[in-house]
Amino acid sequence: DSRTEPPLKAVLWPALALALAVAVLVVWVSLGFRNDLLASLGDPVSVMRFVLTAALGVLGVRLALMLARPEGRSLARLWPAAVPVMAALGLLAWAYVSTPAEGRQMALVGKTMTTCLVMIPLLSVLPVAAILVGLRRGATTSPALAGFAAGLGGSGLAAMAYAMHCIEDSPLFYVTWYGLAIGGVTLVSTMIGARVLRW
Predict the structure, then answer these.
(1) Kind and range of the H or E run holding 122
(2) Mean pLDDT across 70-86
(3) Burial of 98: CB neighbours in 10 Å, binned 0-12, 13-18, 19+
(4) Is the four-CA dihedral 54, 131, 61, 193 of positive or negative sign?
(5) Mean of the pLDDT values across residues 95-111?
């Protein structure tokens, strides 16, 4: 009883860093980074792919860490995660208005829609699993919500890794398809969490 375990965040963040490194390595080896990656970072609209996904990832992990404790449900707040979502929707509306009507379909569908919808969920497996395993070490009283947080955090970080390959700079593309991929992973993780995180 006198033995103490390290705090969950001290274990989870290094595990997530490793999972994210693996995801980046998979992107590099299997797809390759986009040729103009460094140049694209000078475009604020393109950079928002990284900003929005990183924000969702970090906020999801933070929420998961909070929900790992029994009192976490009363302390957890979902509204911070709504901030990047609302920013993404605003960016989507701006892109729709500013893109000529004849170019909207191409901007929306792009050339890599299928790759995006397949790779983001695949890249999410390790980070989501790392968060769920970490939550198992805790004592959450909201297993479904904790699963939601794990899915949001893990898939957000995975989408950030995938963005290093993605050549689609229009918010019509990345808000739509990244959003669908992240939403799908989060839904599945919520259902898994509801089962595996119960006491």
Answers:
(1) helix 113-136
(2) 87
(3) exposed
(4) positive
(5) 93
pLDDT greater at residue 3 or residue 42? 42
Write the single-letter amino acid at 52: L
Q: Is the pLDDT of residue 1 over 60?
A: no
Residue 167 has pLDDT above 80, yes or no: yes
Question: Letter for the amino acid at 179?
Answer: G
Quick check: 64 and 149 in contact, CB under 8 A? yes
Tokens 């906020």 — which residue?
Answer: 59
Question: Whole-angstrom distance between the N-terminal and C-terminal Cα of the chain?
Answer: 21
Q: Write out 146-162 in H/E/C secondary structure.
A: HHHHHHHHHHHHHHHHH
Long-range contacts of 118-122 (CB under 8 A, 24+ apart): 119/27, 119/31, 119/162, 119/165, 120/155, 120/158, 120/159, 120/162, 120/178, 120/181, 120/182, 120/185, 121/155, 121/158, 121/181, 121/184, 121/185
Pair 135, 64: CB distance under 8 Å: yes
pTM over 0.85: yes
